UniProtKB/TrEMBL annotation:
Role summary: Seems to be required for the assembly of the photosystem I complex.
Membrane topology: Peripheral membrane protein
GO cellular component annotations of the record: chloroplast thylakoid membrane
Main location: plastid
Protein's GO biological process: photosynthesis
Pfam families cross-referenced by the UniProt entry: TPR_1 (PF00515)
The organism of origin for this protein: Welwitschia mirabilis
Tree of life domain: Eukaryota
Gene from which the chain derives: ycf3
Protein name: Photosystem I assembly protein Ycf3
PROSITE patterns named among the record's database cross-references: TPR, TPR_REGION
Family of this protein: Belongs to the Ycf3 family.
Locations listed in the record: Plastid membrane; Plastid, Chloroplast thylakoid membrane
Keywords: Chloroplast, Membrane, Photosynthesis, Plastid, Repeat, Thylakoid, TPR repeat
C-alpha cells in the first residue's frame, strides 16, 4: 500500500483524497501522475513523519519521472530540506542551488541557503574566526535580500537581522 494511503491525520487524509481525485480528472501523462504520487508520498507522509530515507527514495523516484523544470525545482528543494534536517548542510546547499537554477523565484530555497550561511557564520565566531564569520554573514544577507524581494511579507526575522547588522541597504 502506498504510504499516502496510510495517513492517520484528518488533514493529511483529506489532502490525499483530494490529490487522488485531481489526479484522476486532470488530463496528465501517466509518468506525470506517477511522479506526483512519489512527490506526494515524500512530502505528505515520509518527510512529515521524519522518515527521511523513505522521503529521499520517493523524491529520487519523482526526479527520475518528472521532466518539467519548475516541478523538479520543488522536488530538489525538498531533497535539500531532508539534508538540512539531517545536518548535511553542504549537500543541502547543492540541492537548493539546483532548485534555484530551475526556478530562480523560489524564495524558500534562498531563505534556507541564507540560514545555512548564517549558521556557518555563527560557527566561525565560536571558532574564533570573525573574518570568516563576516564572509558567511554577508553571503546570508545577499540570499535573504533576494528572498525578501520575492516575498516581501515573509522572513521578518531576517529583515530585522539585516537592519540590526546594517546589511539591509
Amino acid at each position: 500500500m502506498p504510504r499516502s494511503q496510510k495517513n492517520e491525520n484528518f488533514l493529511d487524509k483529506t489532502f490525499t483524497i483530494l490529490a487522488d481525485i485531481i489526479l484522476r480528472i486532470i488530463p496528465m501523462a501517466p509518468t506525470d501522475k506517477e511522479a506526483f504520487a512519489y512527490y506526494r508520498d515524500g512530502v505528505m507522509s515520509a518527510q512529515s513523519e521524519g522518515e527521511y530515507a523513505e522521503a529521499l527514495q520517493n523524491y529520487y523516484e519523482a526526479m527520475r519521472l518528472e521532466i518539467d523544470p519548475y516541478d523538479r525545482s520543488y522536488i530538489l528543494y525538498n531533497i535539500g530540506l531532508v539534508h538540512t534536517s539531517n545536518g548535511e548542510h553542504a549537500k543541502a546547499l547543492e540541492y537548493y542551488f539546483q532548485a534555484l537554477e530551475r526556478n530562480p523565484a523560489l524564495p524558500q530555497a534562498l531563505n534556507n541557503t541564507a540560514l545555512i550561511c548564517h549558521y556557518r557564520g555563527e560557527q566561525a565566531i565560536q571558532q574564533g574566526d570573525p573574518e570568516t564569520a563576516e564572509v558567511w554573514f554577508d553571503q546570508a544577507a545577499e540570499y535573504w535580500k533576494q528572498a525578501i524581494m520575492l516575498a516581501p511579507g515573509n522572513y521578518i526575522e531576517a529583515q530585522n537581522w539585516l537592519k540590526i547588522t546594517g546589511r539591509f541597504g
